[in-house]
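Lay summary. Proteins are chains of building blocks that fold into shapes, and those shapes determine what they do. In this project we predict the shape from the chain. Here is one chain we studied, written as its sequence of building blocks.
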Amino acid sequence: MSIFLKAVNIRELEFTDGVDWTSNPIWEPVKTAISNMSLTRLSLRIISESAEVVPQLQAQPGLEHLELWTAARLWDLKETDIPRLRSLSATLQDAATIVPGRPVEELHLALGLREHRLDEQLVQKLSLSSGPITKLVTRLRCPQGQDVVRHTLQVLAHHLPQLRHLTLDVGGVLSGRVLLDEIPAFRFLRSVKFLNADLHHPSDSGDDASRDASGALAGLDNSGDDRIVAQIPEFDDWKDLVQRLGEKCPLLVDIAYMPLPHCCCSSCVARALG
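And here is the predicted shape, written in a compact code that computers can read:
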């Protein structure tokens, strides 16, 4: 601790475990030390809802990269605090508080424990970045229906129209038709990545699949090659989907995917058991 208190030249500081700034007095000198540093990057996980983190952020006018996973209160954060912030990793709720008025260009979003889809009102606040936001990484929670995927893409395309790089950690099954419907709405998209994602195939059943198949026809051209994605037989046909996306989105030069290795959530287990 005596060494840490003297390390005022630290520029990048990462706490790899959660910290409790309320019940453990050992963190008091740490908070003081952070306030005396001139950081450009801070990674911090606060595990107490009553913790106060705003004073430490207010003491960092040069902070450019912030990873903040916390249940702490951020309401006292002023518009003039952390004015150089360019990259933020946080929950959607916290990001909606931090982003407005700051030059955030890169955003890593996580949903809260009780959230299952992106809240459009919160995403709208992200559009108030003075950036604008051009790179977004977010995660879906094993979407049980393709309406969650469609909703996510529509909300992002509408409120963050300047996106150039999009990464979705799906953790479930995607519909090729939904992607062909919604991805072209991102007019400036250069790269898109789908992580932990399988494509819907004929053995999948349910109303969502039928709705996707019928609801997407209007978004396809009449060239006759829409059969490419009408029945995508598992992730081996990602190549066909990638080719079709490339044809519909000329600016999209980087399309990557990672098949779903294994998921143990209740919805995916139920699907696997048939």
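What the prediction tells us: The two ends are 56 Å apart (CA to CA).
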